[in-house]
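re: that complex we talked abt at group meeting.

here r the seqs, copy pasted straight from the sheet so there may be weird spacing, ignore it
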Amino acid sequence: MKPAPFEYVAARTEDDVVAALTDGHTEVLAGGQSLVLEMNYRSRRPARLVDINRVPGFDRLATGGDVLRVGPLVRHRAFEGDAVPGPLGVLLRRVVRHIAHPPIRARGTMLGSLAYAHPAAEWPAVLTALGADLELAGRDGRRTISAGDFFLGPHTTARRPGELLAEARLTLLPAGTRVGFAEHRRTHASFAQLAVLAAVTLTGGHVSAVRVGLVNAADRPVRAHHAEAALLGRPLDDAAITAAGQAAGAQDADPRDQPYAGLDYQRHAVAVLTRRALAQARDEG
Amino acid sequence: MWRRAAVVVEASYRQQLLAHTSIEARAILVRPEDDGALTIWVSHQAPHRLRRDVAGSFGLREEQVRVVVPDVGGAFGGKSETWPEYFAVIAAARRLGRPVRWLEDRAEALTGPPHGRGQNQRVRLAAGADGRILAYELHVDADIGGYPHTGSFVPMATSMMATGAYAIPHVHVRTRAVVTNTAPTAPYRGAGRPEAASAIERTVDLLAHRLGLDPAEARRVNFITPDAFPYDTPTGFTYDSGDYAKALDVALDELGYAGWRTEQARRAAAGEPPIGIGLCTYVERSGAGEEFGAVEACADGSFVALSGCCSTGQGHETSFPQVVAAVLGVAPERVRLVERDTAVVPRGIGSFASRSMQTGGAALHRAATKLIGAARQRIAERWAVPVADVTYEAGTLRAGERSATLADVAAHGVLRADETYAPPEAFPFGAYAAVVEVDPELGNVTVLRLVAVDDYGVEVNPLIVDGQGRGSTVQGLGQALYEDVRYDAGGLPQTRSLLDYLIPTISELPPTRFAETCTPNPNTPLGAKGAGEAGCIGAPPAIVNAVADALGLRERDTLQMPLTPYTCWSAAR
Amino acid sequence: MTTVHLTVNGRPYELDVEPRRTLADALREDCGLTGTHLGCEHGVCGACTVLVDGTAVRSCLMFAVQCEGARIRTVEGLAADDGTAHPLQDAFSAEHALQCGFCTPGFLMLAAGALESDPEMVRDDERLRELLTSNLCRCTGYEAIRRAVEAAGQVSMRDTGATTRS
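got the structure back, here u go
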């Protein structure tokens, strides 16, 4: 099908964007790889689009101190290379390979994915688990919200009409942090059925810090606190990893109906994927 | 029989609904002409049939309707029918007096007609302790959708092919075409034969498992033997030729069967992820009815071949000139093919059921032979010599010292031979073997190896035949593991995009080997059998049998395509 | 209607389009370049893949109005001005990498974008597989497409002149 008619605004500054968004009927056009798809299907019919592709500086991807700052037009593919230092870079590099395929990654953006909040998207769970801060810009100024508070359900976020998701800030993972990612899907080009990411810091052979995130295991991205609790203070051995997997599947996951995966299978698969992500973190770093 | 037999196995199988998924969906452009005539450009498989249907429905003479089929972006059975949408477009164009086009979008293609497959099957098979099959019963409930279109055609094709490669003395088939609330079904690549092959091949495997026989051996003892051809099946077909055991032997050899069995045992002993080996020895039916072919010699030394077939990507432009050139003894580049335009090709049926080379190619073969005969006759008359004294070789006719080329003959008057030929159906066959690994934790199936051995009779263009084999095998892989048109409990379609309906990408390709045996079609001068659908028929049962083998399943009713990880995980519990 | 200026295969176009006109439709309907095919209009099949400023993208998921000032390359611009086929076109033909041909323009442009930025990528089986996973083909079973892109990459590495032709 073809999109319904809409009005088009090509923004040149962030103020342009925020001004355009105040009418409440305008949506942000960033990479467009989900929005335009939905418009082609007419499952979305925005009255107006504000295109942010020509706003200078929106593609900024910068590290300052121990913080990675991601602008609203940083494409997925920016994370394929070594732009992000240290273990965080390794994790993002592993994750990004699972997002669609090269032409989509050349257009789609990380912040667009966060704003779209597709339940099977990888970035929301990564940022939730890592405790990223999200900055929203609106007519009344800017506010910061933790990624854990941002996602409210499928395609539902704390972003208010009139707000632009202006920046994501991730704290770099300290050197020595071990990361892992495991995803389950039906074909290489399909969405994730489930996925798990892990970042583990060992001190003196024991887990001193850990983040575990679940993709598509609930109505929103999950930071797997129970799994993390099962690991803290313990050596990263098979027993701890198995316990963490069980906790993730049984306690952290809150699976919903999806095709080709019953609820029992989803809990089981979360446990397996958690184990695999942790094993990768342990064995491959 | 059922009480006497040493063993009786029973099972139920589901042939899920599939989407043809030609990357180009349906498309039609209609231009009304001044005199009430119509010119129709349409992405189609059977232009002459469409012309007939359109003319009949709008009260036009056939010559008032010109159907032109430009390059078609894939079809696989979904573009051979006269769809109601076409009439709506034609009516609109006539009403408005201006050209109207319709381009189906992907959501329409996935949710509207046609779907393919869609059968519930129940089987019962009785055998002796030695594995010899005594009786086979197949019940089919075929989902033909809300508006029966091709009706019982596909399920009947399943019925007729029920016994596959085996000599089975007693057969009972009951088929019901069931009207449902899904979109209508229609032939999809294989059109009834994959469904038949899947039922018998899964059941023979089940029998082997039940008797503790090697599945290759269970097949061998039941094969129709080479000396039995032509073989009349209990369902009413006459198989032309075949050597099923040879195809199986080639497949096992290409696979390294014994080595994989050893590896399977080693893994089981070592507690490693299980692998399974699955076989399928299929017979299919190809070609039906007549086809038109004509060859004309031109005064400039070139040739025009006309065919009633309709390429939708099978490369007729390459292979049909090869057929004609081989008969005439000229270079294939001198022969130009014309098809897909009812204003130029007077008659024709089209391309489906793997019929083009077997039927259309054979018609061109005969037309070219006829052309030589006509030229010899013409020269004999002109030179006043007996026809028997006129020889033909490589484009040149000779009698005594005199010679003339076909171009010379054509310069003196149109030199053209038309042929309409209806050879009997042919029965290509082959053997597929798959090795799979099943992730014991998540149920993911990885196909470690796939071997496809096909016998299409004489291959005119091996590269094109290879392409057909590879493409159909990947579609078969799609049915086995990924593809599934879904409706919810309320009858709403759930597969509206290619994000929901998954077809294989290059990353799903298993390491695959292709090999052939060659048993020429005894019923045509060309010797070709159909070669377009084999992989869709052979690959799915081989993969399903391999997964069942890996999981060591005694009862297999829970193992239904597509074999998603969840399906395999559930079946293994 | 909005006026958009873009360059397609080296030729400037000035188009009056509605904002909702996708780049794919603008190429097909407004520029008359029907080599760019639409197979799904949701970015999955890749038949509509073109190069925008050198990068392979889905032209069904971009609006023409976003392409003001952009340089677009479509399959029509792949062969040289004198008609000499691009190495990818030669290779697709030689390897029988197309049957119905509908997905072919998308695969050609996907591969052209990748080879022009780095022909060496064909030496890495994994990268090549990942690239070709972007698009769907229902006819060939992909193997011939993989062989063709690999062969064209070898040609491009030998003859870098061919890779910079625009």
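couple things i noticed - The interface with chain A takes residues 105, 107, 441-442, 444, 482, 486, 494, 496-497, 499-500, 502, 504-505, 507-508, 564-567, 569-570 of chain B (CB under 8 Å). The radius of gyration of chain B is 26 Å.
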